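Subject: Sanity check before I submit

Could someone independently write out the structure tokens for this chain? I want to compare against mine line by line before I put it in a report. The sequence has 380 residues.
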Amino acid sequence: MNKKYIELNQLFEEAKNKNEFEFVLTLINYRGMGTKKLTTNLNEWFEAIEFYKELYHSNIGKKKTRIGALIYSTFFENSDFYNIIGSLCRIKLGYKGSSSLYWKTRKYERLLGIGEKQDFLLELLNDANKLTLISFFEENHFKEIRNTFFHSAYSLSEEEYILHDSDPIEINGIGQSSFNVEEFLYPKIKNVIEFFDIFKELYLNSFDSYKEDKQVEGFFPNPVKPIILGSENGLLGFKIEKSVQIYGEWQDSGIWYKEEYDMWAGHNINIYIENVETIEIKDQLTRYENKEDIKKSNKEFHNLVDKVKERNNPHEIIRAINLLVKFGEVRDKKMQAEENSYKKNNYPKIILPYYKKAVELGNHSTDMTSLKNRIKELEK
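---
Independent answer below. Compare away.
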């Protein structure tokens, strides 16, 4: 069994064992009432890539390369894929999952790009100790391939993929404007297909594994004892019995599948986006408070700080300031211990964004004198 399968399988199992209710919510991926197969982009993604795989394996030359590039690019574009992997990591770590984990940027002006989602996901994978999965993304995803293919900014010979209107692609530390498809692209496509097959199998098997009802414990958002609804066709949702009083009578609430309409439907529940965001921000702040340092990418953290700034909640701002100072000081101490003068001189530009953002957030409510003095020292 390969390492990717082992780690991905472990992630599914660890999330389920940590909090089965959150695990089920992640599988359902509910955002609102809708047809079962159309409320997520996973089903089309599964079917499309299976179709593309048939074409890929039945063609040669440039036809094979075109379909291979389509598989490669389509795989990395799926948003629910990132939501689910990220949510499983969060559940394993003791937090809640989310059906919109990487949906909007700091000011809600646009959707997150694939590169941003991956940067955010890598830090979560590191926290969840899924280093093989990190290696998969780092070794196989090249935005230059995805961008040039989807923007028709490439050309092909029988052996080469040539990039146009693009930055060079870095291969073994060297920037290149073309690469050999047999030596470079086809092995990446093979790895992508393998990862896709593993994820699809684990997701569908998890969904199908619920053959009978099962009561668990969870939060929605208060403590509840939901019944996970199973059937011969797998997961049908969850029900919280006699949890809502309507016109003097107690009614069940939850999310479950209505077969006659082929539809997921929420029953006697309200989903307030403001409350969901507050819970997610709280979880993210707590997660970073429990971390000694940011290991793989600071982009998720800075995105969190930007959201806190926009929300302008005094308690959240104080926590964000403390985190900015904390991670700035970690880098400050590394600089002071660094003996290589070249590396030491490079540290201020790494430290200053943390300290300056802390001052920006706390300038009108907190004494920032000592931090401002440290900024002046670093800017000399």
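---
OP: Matches mine. For the report I'm noting this point. The chain has three domains: 3-208, 214-267, 273-379.
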